[in-house]
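ARCHIVE CARD
Drawer: 12
Card no.: 0347
Subject: one protein chain, sequence and derived structure
Cross-reference: see card 0346
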Amino acid sequence: MAGLTQKLRQEYSLLYESCLTRPARKAAVDQVARRLAASRPRYEKVAKALSMPWYVVAVIHSLEAGGDFTRHLHNGDPLGARTTHVPAGRPKTGAPPFTWEASAIDALTYRGFGKWTDWSIPGTLYKLEGYNGWGYRDHHPKVHSPYLWSFSNHYTRGKYVADGRFSPTAISQQCGAAVLLRRLQAGGKAAVQAGPRVLQLANPHMTGPDIEELQRLLAKNVRLVRRRQAGRRVRRADRRRSRASEVGARLSPERGQQRLRPAGESDPRGEKAATGRVQAAADETPRAGPLRAGDPQTDRQLGALGLQEQRPDRLFAERLRPPERT
């Protein structure tokens, strides 16, 4: 099995955040969680020796030995002898009968828990799934490992009934580690680092108080997204107004102080300029001279442009044209 990749992290986070206990299994989950919490002092002794969370030791003990302190944490074999199942012959040192604490430290050290430092949700689930083995992920990828997800909406059927022997119809009767972690976390017993929330409904379809709680959470997240979008629109509008104000401040003082004229009030400078242009056109007319007899332009009818051909500039140009030679 490859290491804890980013893709695998996202998968663990998604599954954990969308994990819901099946209603028919809720009482059993609560019972196991209460038993683990009651034995917390013993789990903490082992966890402290390996610098790891106590609840990780607890859920492994529940799955491997049913919470029985007379059995090895490696695989549930009796503490009165070394283990006989995989991994066999553990612990290597010491003589039986072994204390549960000594056996537990050996089991966790053997699986590399003493060197592991990533106790986020993805890191914790990765180590827990690896403790049981990667058979589901490597050979039956359509079945989420019941070691993590049994009693939840992410698991229905299919399990290893013996080492190397998989049954597609068998159903796990143990509560999965991820389900126990969520229950301990909800009860304030475990400070598990929560992953990112996801807008995903449970599948398969389920009903009950847990579903209603999830729906309220989804609705709250949607409203939060909408508020953030509205806030971004307001900030963009503020930036545009700020830029417009900066452009206005750079205008010349004279232009900025121009007085707006009331409707109906004319501009005296414009009137003077217009009068000058009319007078100049009148002065040019005598210099152009009269139209000559026989000039083909004298009787030309109005064309397609209609009255536009009577503009003074066009008439003036026509009167300056020399007569055509015959």
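Annotation on reverse: The CA atoms of residues 120 and 224 lie 25 Å apart. Residues 12-196 form one domain.
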